[in-house]
Amino acid sequence: MNQFVNLTIYGLSEGAILALAALGFVLIYKSTAVINFAQGEFLLIGGYTVYAAFVVFKLPLVLAVLVGLVFAVIMGLLIERFVLRPLVGESAISVIMVTIGLAAFLRAVVQMIFGTRPVSQPALLPRTPVEILGTTIPLNRILVIVIAGIVLTAFTLFFRRSRHGIAMRAVADDQQAALTMGISVRKIFAMAWALAAVSALVAGVLLGDITSVSGNLVSFGLLVFPVVILGGLDSVPGTIVGAW
Fold it and tell me: Going by C-beta distance under 8 Å and a sequence separation of 6 or more, which residues neighbour residue 168?
């Protein structure tokens, strides 16, 4: 029983991070029909951005996370504007190759700045042991599930209740019909990349805290592909279920 509870909590915590990473992948695909092979690098940059703000520049944790979120939004907007938008109308294979090249470029930039070795970062979430059904579990694993659940719920409410979220769903269903209703498809594309970068940042920060901030974050991002295939390339709820 102890082993079952332990494996369940650890599996749910890693599944929660996978759901966040896969959410960004699905957001981009639903809105732009682009398969983003740089999703793992988005996690990598998210983890290192908060590390730099928190450890290198010694900002308070809350401010460091805010800096990371702002950086993620700007990065997503710039990638959409200068990398993906010029490829509108090109073949799918051309766009895929560009995202693969983007992944290599982002990884190289991180290695140039921070090197290839794991960096040392203080614990962001408390690791106090907590007893659940007679099994001792680190508190940070439970908090990862809670934080990811809150973020995923916020995204779900955004899609279903907010004006921009409904516009994103409209563009995903039919771009031509959305255009006739006055929805700016280009703005929705930019928003999709920005939100994907934000979800990846949260996933990268959480993963870096329970493991380490290193290049291995990229390999975890590659696990997104079986998750989205299992849950559906264009299904946000399916992605969440597939991750868990």
Answer: 27, 30, 31, 159, 188, 191, 192
